[in-house]
Amino acid sequence: MIDSAAPEVGLQPFLHDTVICVAAPSFALSSPDGQLRGTGVDGFYDQDRRLLHTLRVLVDGAEPEAVDHCSPGAREAVFRAMCRDAADPTSAPWLLVARERAVRHPGDEDLGDTVRLHNVGAHDVRCTFSVVAATDLADVATVKAGAVVGDLPCTPVDGADPGVRWLCPQDKSRVVLRALPGPTAADPRPEPEIVLNDEEHPGRAELRWELLLASDEEWSVQLLVHGKTTTVAGYPVPPRRPAPWATPEVSGHPRLAALLRRGLADLEALRLADPSGATGEREDQFVAAGCPWFLGLFGRDSLWAARMMLPLGTGLARGTLWALARRQGRSDDAFTEEAPGRILHELRPAETRHGHGGMVLPARYYGSVDATPLFVVLLHEAWRWGLDEPELRLLLPHARQAMEWVAGAMGPDDLIRYGKGRANGLLHQGWKDSPDAIRDAAGRHVEPPIALCEVQGYAYQAATGYCELLTAVGAEEAEVARWRERAERLRAAFHRSFWVDESDGRRYPAIAVDADGHPVSGPASNMGHLLNTGILRDDKDCRLIAEALVSDELRTPWGIRTRSARLAGFNPFSYHGGSVWAHDSAIAVHGLASAGFPDEAAALLDGMLDAASHFGYQLPELYAAYPSPRFDRPAPYPPSCRPQAWAAASAALLCSAMLGLEADAPRRRLTVRPIAPSLLGLDSPYSVRGLRLGDHDIEVRVDVFGGTDVLGVDGTDWRVTAFGPPAY
Predict the structure, then answer these.
(1) DSSP H stretches of helix in 365-510
(2) Where are the alpha helices (DSSP H) in 498-597?
(3) String of b and e for 440-465 (b: at least 16 CB within 10 Å)?
(4) Separation of alpha carbons 726 and 728, rounded Å
(5) Strand, coil or helix: 612
(6) 646 SS3 class
(7) Shortest CA distance to 546 belongs to which of 4, 474, 426, 538?
(8) Assuming Cys at both sites, which of 20, 162, 414, 617 could form a disulfide with 489, CB separation 3.0 to 4.6 Å?
(9) How distant, in Å, are the alpha carbons of 7, 9, 320, 436, 599 from that of 146?
(10) What is the mean pLDDT of the chain?
(11) For the segment 451-488, what is each residue's pLDDT rounded down to a tens digit?
């Protein structure tokens, strides 16, 4: 366990204007000019450790002037700059500087930059090119806390290529920076002068080249970073095989096509896999939760992302289920909060101290109330989308253990609760897990034990889906009946405990029920997760939730607020107290469409696509919407992860909601209930080609009136039900 003194913490660094390159588990963060100056989040990272925080490029002792940058892909960035001479009356540059950054999977190539210099002047020039580097080898949690850690001393590296090494004495983690000739430096050049650990900047290394560049001559150098950090045994590794999902093509809806294209690219960069043996073995791939703060296996996040991606294939679901099944709880442990059958909350490379509040989390931490039922929900939904029965039978024992944990979490009132964990663990254990996430209408904090509304929905959906799985494999009817009875008890308890009746006639499910059995007043977005869980009794319940979600209290022009704007303590920049989360809003869109509210779903979908357009079609983890018409665009939530798994996967869920897909591969049934183009603001047909249903590639075409054709499944073997627009 961690026993060293925690560094003094500050403010969490902002990310909204940070250039991020990621190929999990490695990533790089810098300012838009590409320089790493040792401030904020700047750095090259791997396995949750910062390998370098400083990598400055200088020409004659000064930074080149930044011009622009672009990101050709999730793993790459290109920065352009120039050097000018004050004596030149035209202010034209004499030197162009291009910096190409690539983040690769370890073993492919090292992290690093290629810097290219091009003399565009009319004369030969002499200049000093310098690279300044330093590191603290801080872990991501320390960086997130805004804590300052001292730099480490460095030593030269022996070998043909000049380089510098830093070593962390506590755990022997180390990093090496090497300078190799670049593509345009084929002719021999003098070795750089290396200056280490000067008195003013201990731990800093500077590499200097004295260059003579002829007119129109180019010169380049590769700056490669290689680190070795300490991690827990069996920690996930970069995948060797391609992404386990199809890449569909959306026609007729350009904004959704752009969002899906970017979302899939982000998910590809977030992939990790469990270690395996021979190259030919199958891989169990999953997606890490988000960069930079959560670049690892997170039960809730990874499960939700895999659920959203099911219309593109079951491969990601299978990999996610197995990655979590291997780490399923086996015994009771107060520190890790492990319990038999419980599904992991998060996996880190090492035990981590989170700066604010003294929180310390182990490398394997189980403090989540929703990941365990979501594990069973994903298994059931993956089976309905075509997961093979042999795979189902292998995973079913893990589902059985998970459901036993769910049964044990049901209290005397038949609700699923989480209690007070250890003092330096997570206070709240749902997806809204910040310390102030659960508050009533007056803004008062509500302490555990707590029953969350969406968790009751997940647990009910898990129980009913588990009954269907048991029936499919021929389990004893007594076991099926026992779980049906538990599901009905949970459903009855939900309706007995959660509904709030306001004095103005409004009625909605509370975000939670407190320790005394009282519903926590004040509308919150969590209710949107209930719409397609089956826990609601009838269309009237669904309509009450739909009305609450699209009311001015919760709906913004760009998504659903986490907390009503009319409540005390509302803050559009609060993590869970008024911000808009992409996945949360996408779940509401899907729920509204599934429950028969296409108008409301279409309006909310349109708002999310408008939000995406303001973020370059890369939906961030969360963002802010001012409750004022004077602000005509969503605002960044500056520390938000980007890319983030369930935000990126939301594109697939929105596509599924638009098409109204409901799969039942074991019974060879597919239902399609699309939203009419007119509701989506389209005046022409749309289609999605390349969806996956079991072994079938399918295409769904929707004409201008909402009529539907499904291609790719044989009507003699499959029952395809395609609903047109409702009659008015």
Answers:
(1) 371-384, 389-409, 453-472, 477-497
(2) 539-549, 582-594
(3) bbeeeebebebbbbbbbbbbbbbbbb
(4) 6
(5) helix
(6) helix
(7) 538
(8) 414
(9) 10, 5, 32, 20, 44
(10) 93
(11) 999 999 999 999 999 999 999 999 999 999 999 999 99
